[in-house]
Design a protein that fits this description.
CATH topology of chain B: Ubiquitin-like (UB roll)
Distance between the termini of chain B: 39 Å
Largest sheet of chain B: 5 strands, mixed
Strand content of chain A: 15-25%
Helix content of chain A: 25-40%
Strand order of the largest sheet of chain B: 2-1-5-3-4
Largest interface: A-B, 35 and 24 residues
Helix content of chain B: 10-25%
Number of helices of chain B: 1
Structural class of chain A: alpha/beta
Oligomer: heterodimer
CATH class of chain A: Alpha Beta
Number of domains of chain B: 1
Number of helices of chain A: 8
Distance between the termini of chain A: 50 Å
Structural class of chain B: mainly beta
Largest sheet of chain A: 5 strands, parallel
Radius of gyration of chain A: 20 Å
Shape of chain A: globular
CATH superfamily of chain A: Aldolase class I
Number of strands of chain A: 10
Order of helices and strands of chain B: EEHEEE
CATH superfamily of chain B: Beta-grasp domain
Radius of gyration of chain B: 12 Å
Amino acid sequence: MDPLIIADRSFTSRLMVGTGKFSSNTAMVDAMEHSGSEIVTVALRRVDIDNPQDSLLTHIDRKRFLLLPNTSGARDADEAVRLARMARAAGCDPWVKLEVTPDPYYLLPDPIETLKAAEILVKEGFTVLPYMPADPVLAKRLEEVGTATVMPLGAPIGTNRGLRTRDLIAIIIEQANIPVVVDAGLGAPSHAAEAMEMGADAVLVNTALADTPDPAGMARAFRKGVEAGREAYLAGLGQQRDKAEASSPLTGFLRND
Amino acid sequence: MQLKINGDDRIFTAPLTVEQLLLNLELKSEHVVVELNRVILDPHHFTETLLSSGDSLELIQFVGGG
């Protein structure tokens, strides 16, 4: 497949995976392996000092996977910027999946705080991949302040409901000069394929892989869905019509009329 | 001396550096980000940074996330 280019970095895979909610680190690593992904998201949280856990980083081969820290949990721009700086201090490449989600029920991204944080982080030299509502105007504004991608949501995080924002994502894709990564809500390989057929540059999934008894199997399925969708987009989908158009010749029938 | 760590007050014996605090809490310094009084500390400075009573620390690490 053609490579995915984000901020001058080239990737073979167009599937990014999240590392949250897996039943074990083994299940997580299996899913990462079988997805073919090269970019994996992680979160930052306080250490439980009475019960310290193994660092997640001991399980992730950072030569193979680009670690993309998110700012999940941030309720405003200040908190998001603080988290991004902490991730960089932990020795990560200065890439960040910017998330500002003040609403605890739908976890919808705050467009104003997201734009504010994006502007600050871009100025500080971060490669910013912002999670955002599927709003074409906001996508342009984020592109203008220098984000590396836009990441419109298909449906709220963890809902597995698919591409509910399809028409708006189509406009974002049409207008974007940076990669469009559909993030959140994709629950089935067909959802991922649909996004890729429309011309999305990549997709990110987490819950769909963590939420099944066989994360590795689902990761393989998503990998194929993403590849199928990309190839179909590159090949060019046929035109939709209201009336039938015969595939077989309309001459030489076994009758004389 | 009293330190606020991840929002909780705790008592430690002075003198204590950041490096010694992490050791004391059985945390590996290469996997923990330390913010001291809202300023992120360069890990190279863990050994020489002395803590004072009333200091507030955030000890942060990577966890799974989407």
